[in-house]
Design a protein that fits this description.
The chain has one domain. The strands form two sheets. A four-stranded mixed beta sheet has the order 1-2-6-5, covered by helices on one side. Strands 3-4 form a two-stranded antiparallel sheet. With 286 residues, it is α/β, with parallel strands linked by helices. Strand 5 and strand 6 form a beta hairpin. Helix 4 crosses helix 6, helix 6 crosses helix 8 and helix 8 packs parallel to helix 11. 52% of the residues lie in helices and 8% in strands.
Length: 286
């Protein structure tokens, strides 16, 4: 992916220099315990934050200033460029397909832990979108996890992660996310998980639209990039994560969809480019 030297987004909130999110010290679990929580969440098929409670993860930080490494700086620039691309693409898609105005999200970069309007954010919880403050939270250390532990390497695999979370913001802009989450609060855990799968697969489809537009209109896609994104979608499927954790896949616990589903819905968005074709809520064929 061609990203160096390109336009960066102004909608970045960089909290990394303050360490632990500006003096945030979250009660609960830290260090090796965070890894245990992460693996346990994979086994259970749930968002790790559901296992942490309101306290989240203890970052072990007292908020002392942090010096960013060259890798930190490069990763921040990379995320900012990808975010700028999503803004350009979704502004155009909203206008052309919906005759509507797209309002960009803010992306928060942090190290170890920070606060969000949706609760504690940490490396163990992974990247997520918070509809309460319309921000994406990302510890770029997750990119290392993506590559070394989850088998999804390449810069476009990392870009897919950003695009997927922005896909949730697109859902929020369309009024889909609030309606789906409202229903989730009124049904059983298993039914809530099933709705969560549809939410996540739609975000995968929307990230496919982003990839299509990036290839066709921005000209930033290089050979092998799309394969990296498809592989990333496969590697973070619920069945693959549970199997790699040494467990038998348990479909009733799935919250994001299988590897086949995630990669297929990404491809639907990539091939179609139409928001209407990403309606995972109106199909029996996930």
């Amino acid at each position: 992916m061609q990203w160096r030297g390109r336009r960066e987004s102004s909608n970045i909130e960089d909290r990394r220099r303050t360490g632990g999110g500006g003096g945030v010290r979250m009660g609960g679990i830290g260090g090796a315990g965070a890894v245990v929580v992460f693996l346990l969440a994979i086994f259970l098929g749930v968002d790790p934050s559901q296992l942490l409670g309101p306290g989240g993860i203890d970052s072990g930080s007292t908020g002392s200033p942090v010096e960013l490494t060259e890798q930190d700086k490069a990763e921040g620039q990379f995320v900012s460029v990808v975010l700028a691309d999503t803004e350009e693409i979704w502004t155009r898609v909203f206008k052309e397909q919906l005759n509507a105005t797209y309002t960009p999200a803010t992306l928060v970069l942090f190290k170890d832990a920070t606060r969000s309007a949706c609760g504690g954010a940490s490396e163990a919880t992974g990247p997520f979108y918070c509809p309460m403050d319309k921000k994406v939270y990302l510890d770029t250390g997750f990119f290392t996890t993506l590559h070394q532990r989850l088998g999804a390497s390449g810069d476009f695999a990392a870009a897919y992660v950003v695009a997927h979370e922005i896909g949730h913001h697109v859902q929020d802009e369309l009024g889909i996310l609030s309606k789906a989450n409202e229903v989730r609060q009124q049904v059983s855990q298993e039914e809530s998980n099933a709705i969560s799968v549809r939410i996540e697969l739609q975000a995968d489809c929307l990230s496919g639209i982003w990839a299509r537009e990036a290839a066709q209109t921005l000209g930033t896609i290089e050979r092998g990039d799309l394969e990296e994104a498809v592989n990333a979608a496969k590697q973070i499927g619920d069945d693959t994560l549970q199997r790699n954790a040494g467990q038998r896949p348990m479909p009733h616990t799935f919250t994001h969809g299988t590897s086949e589903q995630r990669s297929r819905w990404f491809m639907i968005g990539l091939q179609s480019g139409q928001i209407a074709d990403c309606n995972t809520f109106d199909t029996d064929n996930l």
